[in-house]
Amino acid sequence: MKYKFSHIALSTSSQDKRVLPIATQVFEILNNAGIKVSFDENLSELESPLKIKKRSTKYIIKNAQLLIAIGGDGTMLNCSRRYGSEGVPILGINLGKVGFLTDISPDEITSRLLEVIKGDFIEDKRFFLEASIEGKKETYIALNEVVIHSGAIAQLIDFDLSIDNAFVYRQKADGLIISSPSGSTAYSLSGGGPIVSPGVDAITLLPMFPHSLLNTSPLIVSDKSGIKIEMIGKKSKAVLSMDSHNSIKLKEGDIVEISKGKSSLTLFHPPGHDFFEACRNKLGWSSSFSNN
Q1: CA 260-265-266 angle, 5° bins
Q2: Interval 159-206: pLDDT, tens
Q3: Is residue 73 annotated as a catalytic residue, yes or no?
Q4: Coil, strand, or helix at residue 9?
Q5: pTM of the model
Q6: Maximum Cα–Cα distance for the chain, whole Å?
Q7: Residue-range domains of the chain with CATH
């Protein structure tokens, strides 16, 4: 049988004890199908039993046609920034509790993986957010959210928000969550933000515990918008983070610029994937109604 892929890589950032046996199972399925398999350094424990040398990130980006991420959404975020932003499609095996980005459960790996490698899958495009500090060269990407926060419990920060160079408001709050549709079911959701369908080209801005009750509502803008947050107040001590990954200190006068990133992520889902079914299953939504 002819398969869709000739070279697939595996990665994880999870410490779950199930990772290694699952990675071994995936390797056996792919190897039996005649597909070349690579591991990155996070799965280096498999080098000896499987007699396969670990590969560098650069090698995987250049050669792999698909990356299988084994873990929860944290692993998916890590793999998305590391590999997905460089054009490698990603398929997730879910070991987490929620896992909106990971699809395949451990008990259906064989059947679902065989479907995918035969070419039976749904392709899903997601955009990254890109953040930078005005006057500095470094840029950062996030799949879910960019967050500006105080970095301390019960400590407010002051900032001005502008969108497309138009002043929106001055805010005193614990922080601000700027999320993509992918991130609408993550940190933003826990703060009362809206769930945004992945196909909607929008960015959500959600104040975190604002001092003024008039500014509690989330704001949804076009993904083409340019967002600027200027830190004000000498006593404001703020931190900029991307998917809870980076931690950059901000000071008075710093202007954070956020926009849709130049790169995008391609996710592969097994056949039958449905975002709203995932919401029902993972968020406990009622799947049917009864008049009784």
Answers
A1: 145
A2: 999 999 999 999 999 999 999 999 999 999 988 999 999 999 999 999
A3: yes
A4: strand
A5: 0.91
A6: 66
A7: 7-121+270-283 (3.40.50.10330), 128-262 (2.60.200.30)
